């Protein structure tokens, strides 16, 4: 018997052990956003709606953590998301909206029909902030802490079962 | 009934695999006559099993053909509105169906081996059949216990939920079955290697039996990889032909091992050298096939090829891997020392070159294996990495470049021992070609190192492939030699395609409104318009492009961005113009806003890929070379067998004649 002939077996056993271990591990497929823990980019947007002021980075500084909601009146999932935003508002969460490529009339119509959870709405007519903040689509929601850092990114519409998670994050970063 | 018939056939096959395994193993007992008599069952068991397993697959095919929605697998993977051909290909476009195809091919090749092969020592054959039965049994168990393809639904589905639209392509009809035949063909090589190792019969005769199986598997692997690469190229719409995706690597690794095995088995057949090495490669090649299956289906690695991923199945395959790979490597570790070392040879000889390239192929295999498994290793420590071309290309090239050089020279050397001086002229010619090509390209422009080296080596290899013909009579050259020449030339052609594609590809991404024109590499491409179109189970936007080059008449191109329903998914269908010197590749993307005049603009991506088709022509040539070699080897073998038979008959006749010619000696008269 020569030791050299045992090398393939040893290599294989190492692989089998590793693979066996990996199979038993819970697989986490979520990819963390690269924007997490980065400072919110500097911006200052005009109001998108007659009744509310516009939004800027300064609005997030100081006080409680807030939600930054990227949305648009032309976006169907945003309609689906509206009741959840309303629920968050009732929990006392301050939500600042950014309307992407929208018109004041459409925004007004949307809010009349689906309710208004926002305290401020900025108009991002050329998707400038949307791109800078790393949002690939509409809607997306960011948790911004009192120092103006991005702490959490939710991609897609907020479903009912996402609400507790968002509240938890808001609590955690307080 | 169809499903029950298929399931019953599958259970019977499994039972026969047990019989084959047990009777083959009992045949190894020499002393006991009663037990040894059982060995007679091994061959018939393998043959009948082949018939039943193929029948079982046929039943599933039938269920898919008539879209029997009471079968769960059909309901989840097919749809009554799907084109008929894709209903059929849907049979193996899913986990269970493809595993059934796998075992059907496994049983079929086992049956062919048992039915046709009479040259091996019976004891070796029994051991081989026992191993083959053991391997088959594991996969039957896997199918029957964890992925039954014939499972019925309690209530038949109203409509099927379709098939992954990416897979609704003729590529799917060709690519997986060819690969499977290749993978599973290697199982025969594996069983033969184990049989020879167990009975210590690693001889040139054994190598001659093994060679056609290795060639056969290798031809199919080559075809499968070639088809798969072309499929990914035009179907994924990314313009690339190799992505170093784990699943692609899973098909490449057995090919690398099989290529090495193919050459070492030839050395064993011709020169009785490289005994343990050949056995090791035989084990390795099939191990890589099974490893590939495990990686793809267990979901331990993330890949673009989305098979139904299931950790439980993963565990099952891992256990099978442990049994087969672990078991065979353990036997190898214990037994390999007892196989007498083969004949010796000097470094500068045909064997020397083959050994060198065997080592290089194995090194490339190790590189690919490491790169494929590395994410698994780091993930155990919670670090996520993705290993891609920046690792594989240079690391592979370190070994591929010396391999190509030796590949050009090796076939010119003599067996056993040779002096490089003898082939001085050839060496000088090849060196001049390499240097000349590098200088020429360096003058033309500034290109990356690897493609330039690739081009120079391709040129040298293209010439070197035909040099073995020098000093031979063309008409008397054996077919197997033609096979080698064709395959080696195919490697040169493929390498040329890869190098030109990566060095000289031109790309243009533009937002264009209908009516406007883009220029690329001498081509003029005009977007005439964009229309909505609909197919049997999809809707799409289709661009009408007219492309022309050098004032010739324009060719129409219709790339599409398709949306499938059931299940809903978007794919992009590229459109190609193929010319002798390359392909124009066009993809249409999303809308891209309005232009200054308020016209809708579309994202249009076009590539000019010079000589890209040579990559796949090369692959076809390599396979053709393999086919020629099989025909040549089998023909020579049959002729020799016939000659031996004729010789025997003649000797028998002569003995009879002699007997007749000599007058019978008078019996002494009884007194």
Describe the protein.
Chain A: Belongs to the thioredoxin family. DsbE subfamily. Chain A: It comes from Erythrobacter rubeus. Chain A: It is found in: Cell envelope. Chain A: Residues 34-174 form the Thioredoxin domain. The complex is a heterodimer of chains A (174) and B (671). Chain A has helices at residues 7-24, 76-90, 104-114, 128-132, 163-172; strands spanning 44-45, 55-56, 66-71, 95-100, 118-124, 140-144, 150-155. By secondary structure, chain A is of the alpha/beta class. Chain A has a single domain, classed as Glutaredoxin (3-Layer(aba) Sandwich). The longest helix of chain A is centred in the first third of the chain and has 18 residues, at 7-24. The model of chain A has no long low-confidence stretch (mean pLDDT 85). Chain B is of the alpha+beta class and 671 residues long. Among the domains of chain B are: 1-168, no CATH class; 430-504 and 615-631, no CATH class; 507-611, no CATH class. Chain B has 18 helices and 10 strands. The longest helix of chain B has 48 residues, at 614-661. Chain B starts with a helix and ends in a 10-residue tail after the last helix. Residues 304-308 of chain B have low confidence and may be disordered. Chain A binds chain B through residues 1-2, 5-6, 8-9, 12-13, 15-16, 18-25, 27, 29, and chain B through 276, 280, 283-284, 287, 294, 298-300, 302, 311, 314-315, 318, 321-322, 325-326, 329-330, 332-334, 336-337, 373, 376-377, 379-380.
């Amino acid at each position: 018997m020569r030791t050299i002939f045992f090398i393939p077996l040893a290599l294989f056993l190492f692989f089998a052990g590793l693979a066996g271990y990996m199979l038993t591990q819970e697989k986490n497929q979520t990819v963390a956003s690269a924007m997490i823990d980065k400072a919110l980019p500097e911006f200052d947007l005009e109001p998108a709606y007659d009744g509310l002021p516009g939004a800027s980075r300064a609005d997030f500084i100081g006080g409680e953590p807030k939600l930054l909601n990227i949305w648009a009146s032309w976006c169907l999932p945003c309609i689906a998301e509206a009741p959840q935003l309303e629920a968050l508002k009732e929990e006392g969460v301050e939500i600042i909206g950014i309307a992407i490529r929208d018109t004041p009339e459409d925004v007004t119509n949307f809010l009349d029909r689906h309710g208004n959870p926002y305290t401020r709405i900025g108009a991002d007519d050329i998707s400038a902030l949307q791109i800078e903040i790393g949002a690939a689509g509409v809607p997306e929601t960011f948790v911004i802490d009192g120092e103006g850092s991005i702490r959490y990114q939710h991609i897609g519409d907020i479903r009912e079962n996402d609400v507790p998670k968002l509240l938890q994050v808001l609590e955690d970063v307080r | 009934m169809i499903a029950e018939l298929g399931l019953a056939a599958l259970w019977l096959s499994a039972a026969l695999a047990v019989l084959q395994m047990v009777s083959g193993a009992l045949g190894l007992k020499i002393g006991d006559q009663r037990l040894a008599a059982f060995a007679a069952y091994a061959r018939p068991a393998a043959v009948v099993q082949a018939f039943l397993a193929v029948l079982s697959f046929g039943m599933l095919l039938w269920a898919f053909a008539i879209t029997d929605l009471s079968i769960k697998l059909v309901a989840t993977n097919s749809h009554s509105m799907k084109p008929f051909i894709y209903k059929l290909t849907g049979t193996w476009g899913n986990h269970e169906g493809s595993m059934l195809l796998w075992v059907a091919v496994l049983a079929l090749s086992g049956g062919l081996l048992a039915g046709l092969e009479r040259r091996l020592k019976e004891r070796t054959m029994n051991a081989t059949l026992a191993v083959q039965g053991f391997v088959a049994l594991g996969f039957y168990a896997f199918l029957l216990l964890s992925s039954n393809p014939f499972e019925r639904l309690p209530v038949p589905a109203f409509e099927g939920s379709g098939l992954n639209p990416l897979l609704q392509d003729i590529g799917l009809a060709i690519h997986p079955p060819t690969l499977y035949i290749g993978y599973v063909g290697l199982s025969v090589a594996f069983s033969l290697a184990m049989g020879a190792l167990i009975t210590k019969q690693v001889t040139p005769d054994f190598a001659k039996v093994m060679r056609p199986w290795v060639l056969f598997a290798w031809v199919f692997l080559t075809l499968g990889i070639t088809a798969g690469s072309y499929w990914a190229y035009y179907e994924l719409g990314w313009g690339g032909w190799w992505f170093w995706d784990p699943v692609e690597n899973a098909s490449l690794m057995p090919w690398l091992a099989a290529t090495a095995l193919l050459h070492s088995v030839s050395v064993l057949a011709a020169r009785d050298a490289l005994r343990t090495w050949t056995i090791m490669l035989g084990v390795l090649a099939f191990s890589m096939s099974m490893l590939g299956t495990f990686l793809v289906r267990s979901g331990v690695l993330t890949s673009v090829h989305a098979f139904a991923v299931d950790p439980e199945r993963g565990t099952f395959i891992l256990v099978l891997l442990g049994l087969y790979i672990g078991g065979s490597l353990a036997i190898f570790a214990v037994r390999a020392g007892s196989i007498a070392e083969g004949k010796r040879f000097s470094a500068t000889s045909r064997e020397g070159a083959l050994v060198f390239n065997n080592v290089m192929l194995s090194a490339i295999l190790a590189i690919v294996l490491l790169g494929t498994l590395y994410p698994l290793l780091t993930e155990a420590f919670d670090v996520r990495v993705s290993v891609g071309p920046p690792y594989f290309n240079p690391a592979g090239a370190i070994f591929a470049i010396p391999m190509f050089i030796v590949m050009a020279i090796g076939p010119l050397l003599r067996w056993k021992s040779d002096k490089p001086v003898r082939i001085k002229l050839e060496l000088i010619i090849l060196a001049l070609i390499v240097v000349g090509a590098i200088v020429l390209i360096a003058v033309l422009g500034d290109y990356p190192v690897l493609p330039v080296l690739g081009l120079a080596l391709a040129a040298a290899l293209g010439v070197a492939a035909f040099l073995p013909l020098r000093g031979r009579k063309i008409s008397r050259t054996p077919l197997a030699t033609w096979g080698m020449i064709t395959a080696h030339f195919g490697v040169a052609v493929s390498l040329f395609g890869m190098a030109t594609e990566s060095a000289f590809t031109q790309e243009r991404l533009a937002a264009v409104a209908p009516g406007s024109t883009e220029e690329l590499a001498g081509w003029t491409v005009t977007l005439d318009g964009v229309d909505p179109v609909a197919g049997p189970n999809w809707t799409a936007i289709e661009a009408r492009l007219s492309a022309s080059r050098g004032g010739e008449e324009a060719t129409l191109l219709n790339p599409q961005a398709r949306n499938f329903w059931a299940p809903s998914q978007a794919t992009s269908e590229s459109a190609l113009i193929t010319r002798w010197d390359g392909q124009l590749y066009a993809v249409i993307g999303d809308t891209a806003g309005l232009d200054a005049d308020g016209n809708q603009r579309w994202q249009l991506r076009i590539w000019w890929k010079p000589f890209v088709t040579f990559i796949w022509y090369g692959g076809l040539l390599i396979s053709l070379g393999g086919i020629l070699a099989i025909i040549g080897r089998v023909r020579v073998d049959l002729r020799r067998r016939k000659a031996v038979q004729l010789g025997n008959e003649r000797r028998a006749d002569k003995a009879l004649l002699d007997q007749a010619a000599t007058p019978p000696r008078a019996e002494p008269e009884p007194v």
